[in-house]
Amino acid sequence: MRPEDVAQAFRAASRAELQALKPGNVHVFRPGHGMTAATFERAAEAAALPLATGATVGARIEGATLASLAAVGCNANLGIVLLCAPLSEAALTRRDGESLTDALDRVLGGLTLVDAEAAYRAIASANPGGLGASARQDVRAAPTVTLRGAMAQAADRDRIAAQYVTGFADVLASAQAYAAKTPGPAAVEDVFLDLLARLPDSHVARKFGPEAAESLRDEAAAFLAALPAEPEARRAALDAFDLDLKTRGLNPGTTADLTVAAVFAASLLQGV
C-alpha cells in the first residue's frame, strides 16, 4: 500500500467510528464528556499523514500525536494512534508473500528503544486522563526497554498495551468480524459492543477503578444479549444506553480506540 492509501483508510475508519452510536462514547448523534465529534474529526485529519509517512513506528506515534494536539488542543486520539502506527508500518512494509499479520509480527518484534523514546514523548505530551505515575517505565522518564517491552509491562492493566504483546489479537479478530458484515454504522456498533461486552475498558478502569470497568463489561454483555434486531428498536436501545452511561460519566474510550483500529485493520487486510 502507498502512504496516501493508508492515510485515507485511517480517515475513513475514524469517520466510520464517529458515525456509529456507541454507548458512552462521543459520536455524531450526541456529544459527551465535554467533547464533540468535530473534535475527533479534526484530530483524525491532522494525524492521518504523519501516521502514514513517519520513518518508524515511534515517529508515526509522535508525529501523529503532536499534529492532533496542535489541531484540537487536547488529547483526542492517542490510543488510536498507538494502535494504528504499527498497523500502518506493517501495511507499508509488507514483503512479497507476507500477510499483514506476519508483517505486523515482524514490526512488533523490531521495535526499538528509539521507538519507545518517541512514544513516551507523545504520551507525556497528550497526558491522557488517568495516566498517573508508574514505578516502572514512567513515560515522563527515559525508557530503558524497547517499545514492546514497555507495553508488556503495562499489558495487565491496559488493553492497548496488551495488543503489542498479543500480536494485536483483539484488533485483528474484530477486524475479521467487521469485514464479514455489511459495511455501515450497525457493523461498527456491533464491533464496539462485542469488545465492550468481552473486555473491561481500560479508560474506565483508570478513572474509576477495575471494579467499575468489570461492572460496565457485565452491563454491556447483558445489553448486547437483549439488543433488538429491529432497526428502530435497536436505535432506541442504543440511545438510551448511551444517555445512561454519559449521565454517569462512563466513557469506554479504550473500546472506541480498539474499534477504530479494527475498522482500519479491516481495510488494510483488504488492501483498500
UniProtKB/TrEMBL annotation:
InterPro entries, alphabetized: CitG
Gene Ontology molecular function: ATP binding; triphosphoribosyl-dephospho-CoA synthase activity
PANTHER family named among the record's database cross-references: CITG FAMILY PROTEIN
Protein name: Triphosphoribosyl-dephospho-CoA synthase
